[in-house]
Design goal:
The protein has about 425 residues and is α/β, with parallel strands linked by helices. The protein has one domain: TIM Barrel (Alpha-Beta Barrel), CATH 3.20.20.210. The protein is built from 13 helices and 14 strands. Helix 2 packs across helix 13, helix 4 crosses helix 7 and helix 5 crosses helix 6.
């Protein structure tokens, strides 16, 4: 089977020849640029470290690594080979994280403050007047840019009438005409010249972004005493996301197989962060509209929702969501066997392949391999499983462990 056929079979809950694998297909199945550098050195591979997510500082996956680990999924925004984009269409500049040199997209606007910290401006904002807004910080000891809680532009809002428009935010999707043209060119090229399954981001979140804009305290207070504020934000987010998703699907819908959206992080380590009843009343109808648009175009929908989210999985299925990431098996009430038994016939598990909190960074390679083999054995039965670690591979993860993880999948992934 080709990679594309393999992923499509999994999404249709049929058993392919082997378990399909994702690394770097989207912003929650990736690898931090510093972890990638160490991994390439360990594998004696060369490759430029290009940042594809300026906030999380995730790296693009070089073509040689895609082949080495038998990766089946690529993002249509990739600029490294294989790609249909030229160097003039994908421009990067040097950026340093401590002593490490990586390459940042040229358009990303970063400056160093008098305090020595790096700050990021809203380079992505459609309105030029908003592009000087500082939206994230990275201290010199940090390996990420942090928009939250540094930037909560609506934390002082007291009434819905005050919210006239959405403020710029790095986790609200904005596609310019030029960006869509490049995405279309690249998606078409990847579709015609490779057999990878193709994935793209359709829109930002509905739930999580309301918290980031308001801040947790204001959001929680409004949820109980001023729900009109949240309803207004959902109204604006739905309108914005419908427009962005339509433009995205019109441009690349005939080439991509999977449209990812989120984060919709509905869970914490120990349970839901919102009462499921409140989520169903406020957020679920808006999400259902967007999922319907994806399905109407003939694409599969992939939601990212971290934490202990078991109470919401039936809702995901009800509104037509096909796949769910990251399957955080280390959270409460997220037993892999129970998840597969209760939801595996209707929901594809895009993740859950390795615990990134306790096992991937710290376990000896042999223990890690046992862990991965057990999980693959649980999730792969009957299809409906795309392997990736539970969220991104972070700095500090030993490259030997990363290699062991993919060796384990290779050893037990065949059907």
């Amino acid at each position: 089977m080709t990679s594309r056929e393999r992923v499509m079979a999994a999404l249709r809950h049929k058993e392919p020849d082997r378990v399909p694998i994702d690394l770097g297909g989207h912003e929650s199945s990736g690898i931090h640029c510093l972890a990638l550098r160490k991994l390439l050195e360990h594998l004696q591979m060369e490759g430029e470290i290009r940042v594809c997510d300026p906030i999380q500082l995730l790296a693009e996956i070089p073509g040689a690594l895609l082949k080495h680990f038998n990766i089946d999924v690529v993002n249509i925004g990739r600029t490294l080979n294989p790609t249909g984009l030229t160097e003039k269409e994908a421009r990067f500049r040097e950026y340093r994280i401590g002593d490490e040199l990586v390459y940042m997209p040229e358009s990303v606007d970063i400056y160093t403050g008098v305090d020595g910290n790096d700050y990021m401006r809203a380079w992505f904002a459609p309105n030029p007047e908003k592009r000087n807004t500082t939206i994230a910080i990275r201290s010199q000891s940090s390996v990420y840019f942090e928009p939250y809680p540094f930037y909560t532009p609506l934390k002082d809002v007291s009434s819905a009438s005050e919210i006239k428009e959405l403020p710029p935010h790095p986790w609200i999707t904005y596609y310019s005409k030029e960006q869509l043209e490049l995405l279309k060119k690249n998606a078409k090229w990847l579709y015609e010249n490779t057999d990878y399954a193709l994935l793209g981001r359709g829109f930002a979140s509905i739930f999580e972004i309301t918290i980031y804009l308001l801040g947790h305290l204001t959001w929680a207070r409004c949820l109980r005493t001023n729900r009109a504020v949240i309803e207004r934000l959902i109204e604006l987010l739905l309108e914005h996301n419908k427009e962005q998703l339509k433009n995205f699907l019109d441009a690349v819908g005939e080439y991509v197989q999977v449209v990812v959206f989120g984060g919709e992080d509905l869970g914490s380590q120990i349970g839901p962060v919102i009462n499921p009843k409140d989520w169903r009343e406020l957020y679920k109808p808006a999400l259902a509209e967007l999922v319907k648009m994806i399905r109407k175009k003939g694409c599969y929908s992939l939601i990212h929702s971290c934490g202990s989210v078991k109470p919401f999985l039936s809702d995901f299925i009800e509104i037509g969501i096909n796949a769910w990431n990251p399957v955080q098996i280390s959270a409460r009430n997220m037993d892999p066997k129970e998840l597969k038994k209760e939801y595996g016939d209707e929901l594809t598990f895009w993740g859950g392949g390795c615990d990134t909190q306790h096992i991937l960074p710290f376990a000896p390679p042999e223990k890690l391999k046992e862990h991965v083999k057990e999980l693959v054995g649980i999730f792969k039965e009957g299809g409906g499983f795309v392997f990736c670690a539970v969220h991104n591979i972070e700095p500090g993860v030993p490259p030997e462990n990363i290699e062991a993880m993919y060796e384990a999948v290779k050893e037990v992934g065949a059907y």
